[in-house]
Every structure is written in C-alpha cells, then in structure tokens.
Amino acid sequence: MPWTFRNAPSTSDTLMFEKILIANRGEIAVRIIRTCKEMGIKTVAVYSEADADSMHVQMADEAICIGPPPSSESYLRIDRLISAAEIADVDAIHPGYGFLSENSHFSEICEKCNIRFIGPSSRAMEALRDKAVSRALARKAGVPVPPGSEGTVESEEEALSVARKIGYPVLIKAVAGGGGRGMRIAHNDISLKKCYHTARTEAETCFGNSGVYIERYFENPHHIEFQIIADTRGNVIHLGERDCSIQRRHQKLIEETPSPLIENKYKDLRKKMGRAAIKIIELAQYNSAGTVEFIVDDNGNFYFLEVNKRIQVEHPITEEVTGIDIIKQQILIAMGEPLKISQGDVHPRGHAIECRINAEDPYDDFRPSPGRIEMYYQPGGRGVRVDSHVYSGYSIPATYDSLICKLITYGRDRREALDRMSRALGEYLIAGIKTTVQFEQSILQDPDFRRGVYSTGFVDQLLRRGSQ
Predict the structure, then answer these.
(1) For residue 175, what pLDDT is reported?
(2) CB-CB contact of 171 with 159 (8 Å)
(3) 3-state secondary structure of 375
(4) From CA 462, how far away is CA 247, in angstroms rounded?
(5) What is the DSSP letter of 328?
(6) CA–CA separation, 103 and 180 (whole Å)
(7) DSSP output for 2-56
(8) Scanning 30, 85, 260, 371, which has its CA 20 to 30 A from the CA of 6?
(9) Active site residues per annotation
(10) d(CA 172, CA 148)
(11) What distance in Å separates the CA atoms of residue 275 and residue 273, rounded to the nearest whole number?
C-alpha cells in the first residue's frame, strides 16, 4: 500500500496556479518560465541589482528587485522573497536549484503564508535534512552506504577514531550543501587533523552549518544518480539513471543517460538501484521531483550518497530520453494532482548528453572568467537543446556561479548523441570571456570517453596528461 501524507491534499484541494514566483536566477529561472508559459501560468521574476539585465527578468510577466548583488542580501533573503510573493499575489514559489531550494525553513514559511512551495514539504525535507541523517534513513531502508561515522563527528579525536576504524583514505564531508564544498580527502592521521578543521570552516562559511561526517573514500568510483518523482499520495516512480562521473572537484561537467557503465557492464544494477532509490523516497514520505545519488565501484557494488531535494541541473537529459517535463510534474504535484504516470509508463529511448558550459578557464585551474560577452552564437539543429540565459552584450557577474548554459544533445544511440555534441560544441561561439567549450570538446574526443570507460578521476587524469 502506498503511504499517504496526514495532510495530503484531497482531490477537492487541487489548486490551479494562476501565478508563480521564481526564487532563483539564470538558466533555471528561464527554464521554469518556459514551462509555466506552456501551462498558461503567469510568472514573477525576482532579481538582484546585478541581474537587472538577465534574460529571466525580460521573459517573466512581472519582475521585482529584491536587493543588492550578494546572494546573502537578495536570493537568500526569505523575508524579501515572501514580501515579493505577497506584493505580486502569487499562488506558489518555485525555488529552482541552489540558494533556498533545500531549505526546510523556507518551505515551512511558505506553508504558513499559504503559498505553495514547489518542492518537497518541510517535513519531508527534515526527514532528509542533511547527508548524515539521510545515511541513517538509507540504512533503515536496507540500502548500502559507505562505511563511516554514524552521524556528525564533533571532535578531532572522534574523527581520528572513525578514520582508523574504517581505514584510510577517508572523505570528510559537510552534512549540508553540495557542489564539492566542505569536502576533503585524508590519507593519514596528520592530513585528517588538518582536513577535519578545514572542512568544518568551509562548511560553516558556505552553508552556515559546520557539521561534518566521515566515510570511506573510494578511489575513482562511478557517480550515478536516479531521477525520482513522487506525489503526495504515496506514488513514487523513477525515470532511470544519469551518469555524472565526469567532474572536477566534485562538481559535474558532463552528464549522460543511460550510464555507459550500466549499459555495457552491469545492466542488472538499473533495477536494483531504482528500487533502492524508491525505498528511500518512500521511507522519507517525500513529494516532488528529487534525485537519489549513488557511487558504484568497479565490481558493481553500489552505495547510497545523498538525496538532492530539488530539481537537478542535469534534469534535461532525462526529459529528452523519457519525453517527461519534470518541471511540469513538480508544478502539478504542488497543485495537489496525483501522478498520472506509473513506472510501467516510463520507457527511456535513445541517449542524451549534457555539457555544462561555464565561464571558467580550465587551463588555469578553472579560474572564473566573469565579464561581458562580446559575441554570442549558440548551436542548433536536430537533436540539440540549449538551456541558457545569456546573449550578446550580457555581462557574466562575478557574484554568482559561472554557469553560462547547458548544452544538451539527443541521439538514437550514444554514438549519435556524442557526434551531435561534438558538432554543437564546434558551432558554439562565445567571445569576450574564457569558457569550458574547448576543454569539453577534448573530453568528447578522448578514446576512453568515447568507449564509455571513465570514472570520477577522469578529468584529473586528462589534465595531468595534458600538462606532461
């Protein structure tokens, strides 16, 4: 029997949204606006002073400035977002990804203000409030987790005890946030002492939470995640996996679906990992779209990492192979609609790849490259999708992350998707700033990547080869 929220909306509680505020910026705000327009829903953009000329501001039906450039004074200010929502008289708020998207307090404030939060309930967020709590939930669901601490590690002495018990190398990880921040690898007692304090300091600075936990570090594993969708009536499905192993400093660069590792080597893992993902989501009584992340070793053993309680940056590749608009599903669930898709209705077809194009210099330690885009021409043609907020003359602010766009290609098989991506990267023209376009082109031409033989250490290995 599917679980049901005690406060789940009944059929009579279904609310048709007329207006949604998007509490975010950049390409994800543009992405949400597009789906809202298709659904006949009006949109309200919020923006900082640095984003006055951003595309999402121009595309929305209304736009409200919420503060100066620092995110701490704009996109992270719950009071200003709620004030904007009340002024614009919106029905709901979509948080996108990053910023406040996984903040249970923000979700709770929206609920108290009678504004639907387009994401999981505050209670569901609390059930998965940080990575340490999520690990405990995964254990309860019978899903394997990497050996490590039972919860947060409160002292250097405790950290040493845990590390010696599970064996080096170990990974010290912030319980909050993501993007590779608050994470350090320790190979011995000396480095553990230093990394423990460094990780805590960085976690406190980035997330306002210095809590860390420790787990065994797997050398060059595969990073594979499952996209899930769950409504408020206990219906949960997954939309297949994405391989996110091409990354640097734990930040993803290229993602694809299906995973070459699973397709070529461990096809039985798809059902096992899909079932595991659903078990965790059911136990948390989670609603909305979300992602369950795993690592897989070379022997086909998988371990739970975390649940991302929001839309993922790489969600478009899943949309391309399934034909399902995940943002639309989020909105319908927030309206109180039950899922109209069962697991048997999900039939991924073909192959899709996403390259994150960043304003960075990959040959100078990925140094950010903010500035004015002097000329911009984006690729097109069959099987090419570009999710972006930039244009000729737009200035990339130094205040936020460096993502320029997500370039997605689709093909009948992996080779066709790769060939289209290579062609599309060759067409891309972004003048005036440094970008990752050429570096990602070099990844696509690498023989090992073409064969689908890679892990999370691939980018570092490629950079080392290039410097020799």
Answers:
(1) 84
(2) no
(3) strand
(4) 11
(5) H
(6) 18
(7) ----TTPPPGGG----SEEEE---HHHHHHHHHHHHHTT-EEEEEEEGGGTT-HH
(8) 85
(9) 310
(10) 10
(11) 5
Distance, in Å, from the CA atom of 275 to the CA atom of 269, rounded to the nearest integer, reads 10
Question: Domain 147-216 belongs to what topology?
Answer: Dna Ligase; domain 1 (3.30.1490)
Which of 411, 405, 412 has its CA nearest to residue 423? Answer: 411
How far is residue 46's CA from residue 65's CA, in Å, rounded to a whole number?
6
Query: What tokens appear for 8 in the block?
Result: 């789940």
Strands 62-67 and 429-431, sheet pairing: unpaired
pTM for the full predicted model: 0.92
Q: Which of 241, 225, 239, 273 is nearest to 342 (CA)?
A: 239
* Domain ranges, ordered by start, for the chain: 11-127, 147-216, 222-467
Q: What pLDDT was estimated at residue 219?
A: 86
Structure token digits, residue 442:
């070099």
At 306-342, the pLDDT tens digits run: 999 999 999 999 999 999 999 999 999 999 999 999 9
Report the pLDDT value the prediction gives residue 2, as an integer from 0 to 100.
43
Class of domain 222-467: alpha beta
CB atoms within 10 A of CB 348: 18
Nearest in space to 66 (alpha carbons), one of 99, 112, 113: 99
Please check whether residue 173 is in contact with residue 113, taking contact to mean a CB–CB distance below 8 angstroms: no
Determine the residue type at 119.
G
Q: Topology of 11-127 in CATH?
A: Rossmann fold (3.40.50)
Q: What is the pLDDT of residues 268-293, one digit of tens each?
A: 999 999 999 999 999 999 999 999 99
Whether 94 has a pLDDT exceeding 50, the answer reads yes
Cα–Cα separations (whole angstroms), residue 431 to 95, 116, 356, 375, 378: 31, 41, 17, 5, 12
The whole-number pLDDT of residue 6 equals: 35
Cα distance between residue 371 and residue 403, in whole Å:
13
Whether pLDDT at 10 is above 90:
no
Question: Across 80-178, where does the E strand assignment appear?
Answer: 92-94, 116-117, 170-174
Q: What are 65's strand-pairing partners? A: 47
* Residue recorded with tokens 């048997």: 344
